[in-house]
Each structure stands twice: as C-alpha cells, then as structure tokens.
Design goal:
The structure is a homodimer.
Chain A lengths: L2 H16 L6 H7 L14 H24 L5 H18 L1 H8 L9 H26 L7 H13 L2 H4 L8 H14 L4
Helix pairs in contact in A: 1-2, 1-5, 3-4, 3-5, 3-6, 4-5, 4-6, 4-9, 6-7
The structure holds a DNA duplex.
Chain lengths: 188, 188
DNA sequence: TATTTATATCAACAAATGTTGATGCAATAA
DNA sequence: TTATTGCATCAACATTTGTTGATATAAATA
C-alpha cells in the first residue's frame, strides 16, 4: 500500500470513528506516523478532504439511483432495487457510506446546499415511487412522506454495523432481510 | 422567559442546528445577545452542557422504556407502546431527542461509554421482544438483530422533521403511520 | 544522466475557542 | 436592613487547530 493510499484509508477511518469535526489533521498525521505538514502533500485543505470523498460517493450513488428510477420496473421492484443498491454500496464501502449519512453536516456552503438539494431530490423520487405504488394497489394506503423517511432510515443505519468491524457479511442475506422488513414489517 | 430559560432554549436550538462540536460558546452568547463570559453563569463547561441535557432526556426515556418492557403486554403491543413513547418524546421535545440520536457522539469518556452501554442495553431489550414475538408466532421469521435496528431507525429519524420547524403535528396520526409501517411495511 | 514525482522535516503563524478572575449592579429574600 | 441571587462587563490566557514556506531525499521516469 502506497503512502497516499494509507492516508486515504486512515483519514476515512478516523472520520468515521470520531466524526469529521473531531478529527484533526494531527490525528491523521499521527495515525500514519508522519509529520503534520506531510498531510498537505495529499490535500489542499481539511474541508476539501471531506468534499472530495463525499461528492465522489454521492455522485456514484445518484447515478445508480437514476438508472433505477428511469427503468420500467414496477414500484415494488424499484424499491427492491434501491435497497439492493444501498446495501451494495454500504457493505463494500461502509466508511464512505457513513459520510453520506453522518458527515455531510460538516460541509460548508455552497457545498452543503448542493448536497442537501441532491438528497431532497432523491427523497422526492422515492416518494413518487411510493405514491405510484399506492395508486396501483401494490402498496397499502399510507402517508407517503412518513413512509419515505421510514423506508430510507431502515437502510441508512446499516453502515454503522459494517464500518470498522471485521464482520463477514452475507450481502445477499442482508438485502433479503431488509427487503422483507420494508415490504412486510414485523408481522406475519 | 427568564434569561436562564433563554439560554437553555438557544443553546439547544443551536446544538441541533449546527451540531454540538460546531456550536461555540460565542455562538450561544451572540444568540442571546450577551457577553461570552456570561454563559458561564449557567454552565460549568461546554461539555457539561451537553451531558446534563443528554442524560436528563436519556434517563427519562429509559425509565419509560423499562415500564413498557416489564409490563404484561404481548410483544406486538410492547412494540406499539415503544413507538408511542418515542413519538411522544420526539414531538414534544425534538431538540432534546436530537441529542439522543445525533449528539451523543460528542460525549467524552467516561460519559460516552455510559451512554453507549445504556443504548445497547435498550437495543437488546427490543431484540428480546422481537425474538419472543417470533416464537409466539405474532411476528414472521426474521433476523432479530437486523429487524431491531431497522425498527429503531424507523423512529429515530423523526426528530429531524419536527425540530426547529413550526409544523403542526398530529401526534396520534404520526404514531399510527409509524406503527403500521413497522408492523406491515409497504405492502398491502 | 537529468528530471520529475512521492514523501519527509522543521519551524512557525494566525485564528478560533474554552475558560477564568475580578468586579459591578439591581432585584429578591432573610 | 442585610445578604443572597441572577445577570452583566471587561480583559486576558492557554490550547487547539488549520495552514504555509522552504527545503531535503530517494525513487521512478524521461
């Protein structure tokens, strides 16, 4: 592993553990056993470090989301596909997924607004799927907004389970469980 | 409203808006239009401010939780009661609820471990309810751990919707929707 | 060989931030 | 009346923290 890769790995790890605000440049330097100034061989600013990783994973996520949205799948299958996407990204790159869920709050304007705008746009798309599903009779009658947030929160917590821990995860099994929960809840 | 009450209100509001780490003593002072040193008429330290509010609401929450756990309700009704409790606290005191969900990360040892321990204990209790519900046949077969986290995340996002915004909320309606989602998911 | 690239070293600064001490003043309670 | 309580004022300090500039060295590349 090159030093630059070690830097990326360590900084992502620290940001996930302590949060972006609480992670200092000196923390990062110490974790990779080098001088403080050395960190600036890899970044322009601390803020830039957050922005680059955050928007990289965010773009990737939204591009995949749009393909699902624009597909001809029925609402119920679009939901399944979205959950599958979220599980895939979260299990393979949990540290970056944690940026999407937690650390975006540390963005500064105008990046903050840019992120929020994209996220709200995504949430509206999910809400539309739910509304359509209700109309078609695939989903029961419900408040689409509350359902949207509930649904999304069901997958957003996931990274917490797989970031930093060396748990061996059966991606497919996790996906199956989440899909079942979102579609059927607890009940028999 | 006394000055002390204004201090509490403003500091909670700021902590929710910007996060605890990003909220400075000077921010708080400015928000209540007083000198910086003045803030220390009401607190011993910034950290103490977080701790007192966080553990106050946390204790209250867990006391109520234990009453539900120890009741003779069936698993499905315990779940309903828990959701009801969460909605109640979140809708009436969203700013404090946000501490429980977001800001506990800013606690320092040993308070941090204390909080985490309580939270994990709570999660185990919920998991037990689910396991029991499955055994009794009230709930379908599922992975209890994933179900626990999914269930809890379904209610934890709520404060985001009601903190800071002047939305008039029908508590009962929100509760009904959440219960339906947790028990039945999206499906018909 | 010449040169670019990746990384290391050291010192230092400016700004932000939590915190303190000493003091004043007015209202309330004893 | 006296003592306490709640709140305000001002100046100052010690740390923490992001960031820079100038320079060195060894390896990779041209």
């Amino acid at each position: 592993m090159t030093k630059r890769e070690e830097f990326i790995a360590q900084s992502l790890k620290l940001i996930h553990q302590k949060g972006f605000k609480a992670t200092t440049i000196r923390d990062i330097a110490e974790s990779m056993d080098c001088d403080v100034a050395n960190v600036y061989n890899y970044i322009d600013s601390k803020q830039g470090l957050l922005e680059s990783h955050l928007f990289a994973i965010n773009s990737e996520f939204h591009e995949n989301v749009d393909q699902i949205i624009k597909s001809s799948y029925a609402p119920i299958d679009k939901i399944k596909k979205l959950i599958s996407l979220y599980v895939e990204i979260t299990v393979t790159r949990p540290l970056e997924a944690s940026l999407l869920v937690n650390e975006w709050r540390s963005l500064k304007e105008p990046k903050l607004s840019e992120f929020i705008k994209a996220r709200e746009s995504f949430e509206r798309k999910v809400k539309k799927i739910i509304i359509e599903g209700i109309k078609e009779g695939a989903f029961r009658q419900m408040n689409p907004e509350l359902a949207t947030y509930s649904l999304l929160s069901c997958v957003r917590w996931l990274f917490n389970k797989y970031a930093g821990k060396k748990v061996k995860v059966n991606k497919v099994e996790v996906e199956k469980e989440l899909v079942e929960f979102v579609l059927s809840g607890l009940s028999n």
